[in-house]
Amino acid sequence: MSFAQIVIGPPGSGKSTYCNGTSQFFNAIGRHGQIVNMDPANDALPYPCAVDIRDFITIEEIMQEQQLGPNGGLMYAMESLDKSIDLFILQIKSLVQEEKAYLVFDCPGQVELFTHHSSLFKIFKRLEKELDMRFCVVNLIDCYYLTSPSQYISILLLALRSMLMMDLPQINVFSKIDMIKSYGELPFNLDFYTEVQDLDYLLPYVEKESNSVMGKRYAKLTETISEMVADFNLVSFEVLAVDDKESMINLQLSVDKANGYIFGASEVGGDTVWAEATRDQGLRENNIQDRWIDNKELYDKAEQKRREEIEKDREMQEKEIDVDNEDEWDRALKDWEEKQGTDYVR
Ligand SMILES: Nc1nc2c(ncn2[C@@H]2O[C@H](COP(=O)(O)OP(=O)(O)OP(=O)(O)O)[C@@H](O)[C@H]2O)c(=O)[nH]1
């Protein structure tokens, strides 16, 4: 059995940054994480990746050969991969079975791939079946969407649609939450938006926004969508600032629970310390309103201080290592010999 995350979300929501941050986080806790790039258009990866879909297919080739634009090209690329998937699966197999790696799949930003199109879905289902992989989808949404009530409701619909389409455990995440305070005041606490309850309270704001932007029929449509999302009662959110250790830990705890890693990771990973520390632990209560809005500056200052202390410790350690450095030792010995007038050879 092996475990993996499938990272999805609209363009610019922070997927590649998250994959990079997660890989560094895994290194720090001793988990053997590897990243797989699933985006045939991403030619500037900010991380080292173990398998790159661009080794099989690139969007440039497809666009040229098929005379397609970027969106059509991507759909075509995914369909083509679907047909010639065996080599790709072989590479994944070697990662999960021989290297016992925990995989993070960095997916393209075209949301149609997760809401309507079945190619990627089929690839993951095949991996699930053939390699006994356990997935959790991590759906990143830029927290900027919280600033507009109607856009907030539309991303709820998007999240719901991908949950139903992918048919896998899914954690929805408001990314870049460190930016939320700079976007101005929200009418409700952050928990209101993450827990997705009582959407009725939002409707007057939708109406107000629609009056000024789109008109009454648009408000009615948004209202109906919000009722449908509330009826399913499936969508909720975590928050993430990729540089913030606590939000990363909280998110990884949720993901570990969702894909089952927390219950059966003894044969993979190698992060026994993390596993022991989190095995019996529920999610920590975390007041996100306090952390990211009400007292953000205080928390940021404390975090900055913590980082400076870690950096100072690291510098001290490096200095101590210098004492063990062969060259320095030899130099010190030579000085001592000169002073003693001896020819002592170590
Ligand atoms: N402030 C802040 N910025 C972030 C965070 N995560 C990502 N970003 C920034 O958001 C921008 C987009 O991030 P990417 O990781 O390229 O987003 P993506 O979803 O991979 O983008 P596509 O590949 O175009 O779909 C970059 O400038 C990142 O530095 C975060 O937690 N906080």
UniProtKB/TrEMBL annotation:
Biased composition (Basic and acidic residues): 304-322
GO cellular component: cytoplasm
Span list, region Disordered: 304-324
Superkingdom of origin organism: Eukaryota
CDD domains: GPN2
Keywords recorded for this protein, A-Z: GTP-binding, Hydrolase, Nucleotide-binding
Gene3D superfamilies: P-loop containing nucleotide triphosphate hydrolases (3.40.50.300)
Any one Pfam family match given in the protein's UniProt record, by short name: ATP_bind_1
GO MF assignments: GTP binding; GTPase activity
The family this protein is said to belong to: Belongs to the GPN-loop GTPase family.
Quaternary organization: Binds to RNA polymerase II (RNAPII).
Functional summary from the UniProt entry: Small GTPase required for proper localization of RNA polymerase II and III (RNAPII and RNAPIII). May act at an RNAP assembly step prior to nuclear import.
Database matches in PANTHER family: GPN-LOOP GTPASE 2 (PTHR21231:SF3), XPA-BINDING PROTEIN 1-RELATED (PTHR21231)
Name by which UniProt lists this protein: GPN-loop GTPase 2
Protein source organism: Maudiozyma saulgeensis
Lineage: Eukaryota, Fungi, Dikarya, Ascomycota, Saccharomycotina
